[in-house]
Amino acid sequence: MYLVSQGGELLKSVLIYFLPLTLVLQRSNRLYWHASITRFLLSESEKLTYRPAEAEDRASDVIPKYHVYTV
To answer: Superkingdom, according to UniProt (predicted)?
Structure first.
């Protein structure tokens, strides 16, 4: 009978102390993954945004400029 009551106390202490801790860890893990996915999407969207100055630089590198002089 004594072991059963000890087991009940142990179970109660596990439920009181460790269950909230595991829930907090699960929530922080979920928030970590959400933050990392958001960070990845933001970095990808920065690569895809249109920047006119960089586009002009790239266009001048690809397309050779011909200067026509008339005499």
So the answer is: Eukaryota
The number of folded domains in the chain is 1
Length of the chain, in residues: 71
Radius of gyration of the chain (CA): 31
Q: What are 36-55's pLDDT values in tens digits?
A: 777 777 777 666 655 555 55
pTM > 0.85: no
Domain assignment present for residue 69? The answer is no
Give CA–CA dist 46/57, Å, rounded.
18
Residue 53 belongs to domain spanning: 2-62
